[in-house]
Design a protein that fits this description.
Layout lengths: L2 H22 L1 E10 L9 E4 L4 E4 L5 E8 L1 E9 L2 E10 L2 E9 L9 E4 L2 E4 L7 E5 L22 E5 L8 E5 L12 E4 L2 E2 L20 E7 L2 H4 L10 E6 L8 E13 L8 H11 L2 H5 L8 H5 L3 E14 L2 E13 L6 E11 L2 E2 L4 E15 L4 H8 L21 E2 L2 E2 L7 H6 L2 E18 L6 E20 L12 E24 L4 E19 L3 E2 L6 E3 L5 E2 L2 E15 L3 E12 L8 E11 L5 H4 L4 E15 L12 E3 L6 E3 L2 E3 L2 E3 L9 E14 L4 E20 L9 E24 L3 E18 L9 E6 L7 E6 L6 E4 L2 E3 L5 E6 L14 E3 L6 E11 L2 E11 L2 E4 H6 L2 H4 E2 L4 E2 L6 H4 L12 E3 L2 E15 L7 E15 L12 E2 L6 E11 L1
Parallel strand pairs: 1-7, 13-16, 52-58
Antiparallel strand pairs: 1-4, 2-3, 2-5, 5-6, 8-9, 10-15, 11-12, 13-14, 15-16, 17-18, 17-59, 18-19, 19-20, 20-22, 21-22, 22-25, 23-24, 25-26, 26-27, 27-28, 28-31, 28-32, 29-30, 32-33, 33-34, 34-35, 35-40, 36-39, 37-38, 40-41, 41-42, 42-43, 43-50, 44-45, 45-46, 46-49, 47-48, 50-51, 51-56, 52-55, ...
Length: 989
């Protein structure tokens, strides 16, 4: 046969052979996804990790995927209302049948939640508890852990103190329960309770924990959930659980975020030309001569764009049978205030091995942080608002105060004038170095002869060493008359924790019951050593202040006994009770011990016969609880004992040729005791349509008694006319609503929406030992006068309400200077006419989250709102007057906020209610867009995702100041929160 004729047949034969060979190496996967009862699940998502491919089940729960290569594949199956399944499957040639079963999440509510001293199924919770996991955290540049959950949890308000690198936050759970002690919640990291208070050398102690290491936050809100922590739980408890090692292979993750921060808003001030016009019109000849020719925006001078890089790497794997996780992070964050910087280096190790056929579990956590801070003085913010814009930044004479323009008096700086804002930043060095390590080892042993009984030992520490110094050269106007300034500080912190408890968890199927009992002991010792150093001039050859002692060593000890019993019947009824006894060294032996009980009841109505078969209702649970908690944080260590203060060097007494320090007694109350809070809570948890819609509603009532309050005492009865003692009472009532729903869920896209609402009303119910409804305790110091306060506590009013005069207005709606309403009708305007008006506490908190994913794209956003909260505009009240612009007493010209054009006040009207402003707001905290590139290297399982985030996107508010979100309600020299643009890359190996 002709070879030319055979050639096409050979080619066809080879093509068929190759095709058959390729087909033989491919496979098809077919199957069905069902629930535990064998019912088909439509719309379940199957994710094949290696293939970066997802598909959803069709009618009858069926799925099919062909043209697969043989080998192992990791498959993740998920569906709303069901526990996710993560499994490794073996794909063989040809057809591979596969049936998959998901457990109902009406029982994940079989999801396990971390609680005090253990875990509990979510379905059995009797207290008000919220959990936020890493997948739901806030996105973007996060420098401190608490920022991860802003706006995520009803009843929890987190307010950052400003835009400083690593800035701290005010955290309030259900508003707080104290007037003079601490309102901060107890924070527990992997079983180690963190002592409250600040750490010198760092803006915020919590920023010493790397947010990238955190897996979940669990917030305990009502007394049934918190009473197990006793005397430290009146303000709620936050449990932080960090990430652990892996039992299934090695996972390496590297992430980097680089961001640029810009000033989102500045104080609106008069321009240089407006100042010149005002002084030329209203000023004396001497004042007119002080005017300059410059047009300086001092806020532009001190603020600038700020760059941040945040890099983290972690390895999760196992060595033999020991899972481990090692992580390291480095962040370098600049502040928008010039010369402000925070460098943070972190390292962490977590080990979670099991021994003795899994009867013995060990959980070891060690983390260390090194931070270096360069603090820019925030005095520059106030100076930039006040300083005359007609003056230049620099002068030609570089030998004069470093070349910076300053107000002078003769040849020295004017002692009463503001300082050049840029000079304050450039001519002052303030450095802080901090090392902190938090670690613990938890041993849990399940007895071989009685596996339901566990013994748990937790030994931990929280150590820190902080040191720092400040330096101002002799040429700086700030300390010119002292020849400059040099200071230093050093503090060692050594906190120890030891806890031991027995836990018995027994199923009793014969009587459809479960018993979970815990009995434990705790030992907590907090101590520190604060070193005192001389304050000297810049050269160090002249002592400006000398301490009376080389160091202080405050410490306190807490010993605790606690127990809890949880009884569950037929998965329908749950009763729990706790009792904790705390003994604190902060109180006298007669008052040393406090007892804090709680009881809770849950009815799982969904498991009743009349609801069990109703598929539309996924979950319905009712909760009732009562409990009592205490408060000791914020109370001085030795306030029940006679205390003496040692005089300074300036107040020594001379006998002959020798000078002696004087010891002066301080007022004290030997009967000082716990503040205690009683809380009632009623809640309902609900879910519909396989939990595509779910949420909760809670009502709570808190009554706090024995609040610390400063009251007048009879002359001669103590060492002062006023005494801090337990006399106050306060009430809080509120509602919390949380709703989560998934309106869209298809093969390629998912939309997940969350909303939460909190309503709270607080009022003081007692402040004195005898009934005196007119007694007030002034709070809220303000700038602009000596000893001025603008807030007060008073019976039947919200705490820290504004204490002001009622302003009178003219026909044009302008405030009339110095004219107020005579509220008591006595014909005289006096302090008796001041009244309590509005409060900085918002009545309503709202949070909104949305997450949308489409194939490899995803977008998220978080919005927050505070409603019916008010702010005192201390910037305008202090600087918004003609006498401030033309300060003839000091012979300087100052700037003023534009609000001055509305009032035209000649003199300051500090206590006018005109300056109480509605500060309700809606904020978009962030918007994030990310793309999953999948595998990006040949012959590698490495995957990559990239993201872009904008933080502090917008604020809608009537308030005209820099920012309406001021935690204490007094707007004065606020460090502006920046708008931040973030680019991130995340790589998994």
């Amino acid at each position: 046969m002709n070879k030319q004729l055979l050639r096409p047949f050979w080619a066809l034969n080879m093509l068929l052979g190759v095709s058959a060979s390729a087909f033989a190496q491919q496979a098809t996967l077919q199957g069905r996804v069902m629930d535990q009862n064998g019912s088909s699940l439509v719309g379940a998502t199957l994710r094949f990790e290696e293939l970066q491919k997802s598909l959803s089940t069709k009618a009858n729960g069926d799925f099919s995927l062909d043209r697969l290569q043989t080998g192992k594949l990791r498959l993740k199956v998920s569906m709303v209302g069901y526990a996710s399944l993560d499994t490794l499957i073996q794909v063989k040639d040809g057809l591979n049948p596969l049936n998959l079963y998901l457990k109902s999440n009406t029982s994940a509510l079989e999801e396990v939640v971390v609680i005090g001293y253990g875990t509990q199924k979510k379905s059995d919770l009797t207290g008000s508890i919220s959990t936020v996991s890493s997948k739901d955290f806030q996105k973007g540049q996060i420098s401190s852990p608490e920022q991860l959950i802003m706006g995520k949890v009803p009843g929890v308000q987190i307010t950052t103190s400003g835009g400083q690198p690593g800035a701290g936050s005010t955290i309030r759970i259900r508003t707080g329960a104290s007037l003079n002690a601490s309102n901060d919640p107890l924070i527990v990291v992997d079983g180690i309770p963190l002592a409250g208070g600040s750490v010198s050398g760092v803006a915020n102690p919590l920023s010493l924990i790397n947010p990238n290491d955190i897996e979940t936050f669990t917030i305990l809100k009502d007394a049934n959930a918190t009473a197990i922590y006793g005397s430290r739980a009146s303000n709620g408890v936050i449990l932080i659980t960090t990430k652990k090692g892996s039992r299934s292979g090695t996972q390496i993750n590297f992430s980097t975020q680089n961001s640029l921060a810009t000033v989102a808003n500045k104080v609106k001030l008069l321009s240089a030309d407006q100042i010149r016009d005002y002084v030329n019109t209203n000023g004396s000849d001497a004042m007119k001569k002080l005017l300059g020719t410059a047009n300086t925006d001092w806020q532009d001078v001190i603020y600038g764009n700020a760059f941040t890089t945040d890099n983290n790497v972690n390895i999760a794997s196992k060595a033999g049978n020991m899972p481990y996780r090692i992580s390291a992070g480095y962040m370098n964050q600049d502040g928008v205030l010039k010369n402000d910087n925070l460098k943070r280096t972190t390292a962490a190790l977590a080990l979670t091995p099991k021994f003795l056929d899994n009867h013995l579990s060990l959980d070891v956590n060690v983390r260390g942080t090194w931070s270096k801070s360069k603090f820019a003085t925030q005095d520059a913010i106030g100076a930039a608002i006040q300083f005359d814009p007609t003056q230049p930044v620099f002068v030609e004479d570089k030998n004069s105060f470093g070349g910076y323009y300053e107000w002078i008096q003769g040849d020295k700086p004017n002692p009463n004038a503001p300082r050049n804002p840029l000079a304050l930043l450039d001519l002052r060095k303030d450095n802080g170095d901090v090392f902190r390590s938090i670690g613990n080892a938890k041993v849990d042993y399940s007895f071989h002869f009685l596996p339901e009984l566990h013994a748990n030992l937790n030994v931990g520490y929280d150590l820190a060493r902080s040191k720092g110094n400040t330096f101002t050269p002799a040429i700086a106007a700030r300390n010119f008359n002292e020849g400059g300034e040099r200071t230093q500080y050093k503090t060692d912190i050594n906190n120890k924790t030891l806890e031991f408890y027995l836990k018995y968890d027994k199923e009793l199927p014969a009587i459809k019951s479960n018993i979970d009992a815990t009995l434990g002991y705790g030992y907590y010792k907090n101590s520190s050593k604060v070193y005192n150093f001389n304050r000297t001039n810049a050269e160090g050859d002249k002592i400006l202040n000398e301490p009376t002692r080389a160091f202080d060593k405050p410490e306190n000890l807490l010993i605790s006994y606690y127990g809890r019993l949880i009884y569950t019947y037929d998965n329908r009824y749950v009763v729990s009770g706790t009792l904790r006894a705390d003994g604190s060294s902060r109180f006298s032996p007669d008052n040393r011990w406090g007892y804090f009980p709680s009881v809770g009841f849950t009815w799982r109505a969904k498991n009743e016969g009349f609801l069990k078969e109703i598929a539309a209702v996924s979950e319905l649970k009712l909760r009732l609880s009562y409990g009592k908690t205490g408060q000791q944080d914020g109370i001085a260590n030795y306030s029940y004992m006679p205390n003496y203060t040692i005089s300074g060097n300036e107040s020594m007494y001379r006998f002959g040729d020798t000078y002696y320090y004087l010891n002066s007694p301080l007022a004290y109350d030997s009967d000082i005791r716990w503040e205690s809070t009683t809380t009632y809570n009623a809640g309902v948890d609900f879910g519909f349509s396989n939990n595509r819609i779910y949420g909760s509603l809670d009502y709570y009532s808190k009554k706090t008694k024995d609040l610390l309050s400063t009251i007048p005492v009879p002359v001669g009865s103590n060492f002062s006319n006023f005494l801090l003692t337990n006399v106050g009472n306060m009430e809080n009532q509120g509602l919390e609503f949380n709703l989560h729903f998934i309106p869209v869920k298809t093969d390629n896209s998912t939309l997940d929406i969350g909303f939460n609402l909190t309503y709270n009303k607080s009022k003081v119910t007692n402040l004195t030992q005898s009934d005196d409804p007119n007694f007030i305790v002034e709070t809220g110091g303000i700038r602009g006068g000596t000893g001025g306060n603008i807030q007060a506590h008073k019976v039947n009013f919200m705490p820290n309400s504004f204490n002001v005069f009622q302003q009178v207005y003219d026909n044009q709606g302008k405030p009339v200077e110095g004219v107020y309403v005579d509220r008591n009708g006595d014909g005289v305007i006096s302090d008796n006419d001041r009244y309590l008006y509005k409060s900085p506490l918002p009545k309503y908190l709202l949070g909104f989250t949305a997450a949308y994913s489409y194939k490899k794209w995803s977008a998220t956003t978080v919005l927050r709102a505070n409603l019916d909260n008010y702010v005192y505009d201390n910037v305008s009240s202090n600087l918004g007057s003609g006498a401030n612009i033309n300060d003839q007493a000091v012979l300087v010209i100052n700037n003023a906020p534009v609000d001055f054009l509305n009032t035209n006040f000649l003199l300051k009207q500090l206590q006018s209610d005109y300056y109480i402003k509605n500060a309700s707001f809606l904020k978009m905290d962030n918007v994030n867009l990310s793309y999953n590139l999948g595998k990006f290297l040949r012959n590698s399982k490495a995957s990559m995702s990239i993201s872009a985030t904008v933080q502090n996107v917008f604020t809608i508010t009537k308030y005209k100041g820099v920012d309406p979100e001021i935690s204490n309600g007094i707007d004065d020299r606020f460090y502006p929160r920046p708008r931040t643009y973030v680019l991130g890359v995340n790589v998994n190996f």
